[in-house]
Amino acid sequence: MSEFREFVKENEKWFRGKCPETDASLDIVESELSISLPDDVRWLLKEYGYWHGTGICNIEESIGDTKLAREHVQLPVNFVVLYDHHDGGVILLDVEKDLSTRDHRVIDSAWESIPESLEDETIYPSLMAYTKRVIETEANLLDDEDIECNE
What we know:
The protein has a four-stranded antiparallel sheet with strand order 1-2-3-4. By secondary structure, it is an alpha+beta fold. The chain has a single domain, classed as SMI1/KNR4-like (3-Layer(aba) Sandwich), CATH 3.40.1580.10. Helices cover 40% and strands 12% of the residues. Helix 3 runs parallel beside helix 5 (59-72). The protein is globular, with a radius of gyration of 15 Å.
């Protein structure tokens, strides 16, 4: 089991949510964007769906947002939009592993930084580092009784 999966299991209340994906729905994402999603992303969305710690708005929206970003801001094809904060920027997943860490980076970027200045933005070296930061942020905003999904 990957370190990320162990982290998710240890922090399930932050991840166990709504609308889990299926292999078929994730295959559509990969086909539409001509990419392969990292195994841990597929696992997370299939096993847990979307919740506070996931850090992904909606994978269907990701398709449209990624296509628009490729067209309008020349988003490199190895990136997928995980979360569009509109004027607040964008969260990008690099579907190609970093050569030195062998992990998938997540970049918190201003839209204006794409593509030339991505390396100057906030870079999380892994999906786990990113989701840890998401949980830290959400923990400051949520009351304890609102953390777990009650459905």
